[in-house]
Fold:
Amino acid sequence: MSTPPPASSGNLQTSSQNANQLGWNALSQAQTGVKRSQTDVQTVMGALIKAYGGKDGGAFQSLLNEWSGQVDVITRKMQEMMDALTRTGQAQTKTQSEIEDLIVTAKKQHAQLGDDAYAAMLGKSS
Structure:
């Protein structure tokens, strides 16, 4: 029974970046939907508060204001997560670029070492 070859790191990196982007897109869509719902509730709230009078109207307004404040907290947290995903994506791209640069440099160094070793075997100096 043979061991399967390791997955290509490029595929893992691409997959990770894709998952990162999908997460950001999902959060963005959810945030837009939550904000839209908040706007809809605030629109209806204005009309309903006018219809309610007395203590129950004040309690209702207080409840809706509290709800709206919680929506603000949720959308702010969503934005923080989106910002974190953006920073993660930027770090992934930077890391990938740095790794590629290191590989190219190492390849050049190894090629030169191979050329030098071959020349030494032939009795030539480089």
About this structure: Residues 56 and 62 are 10 Å apart (CA to CA). The helical segments are 9-51, 54-121. The chain is about 90% helix and 0% strand.
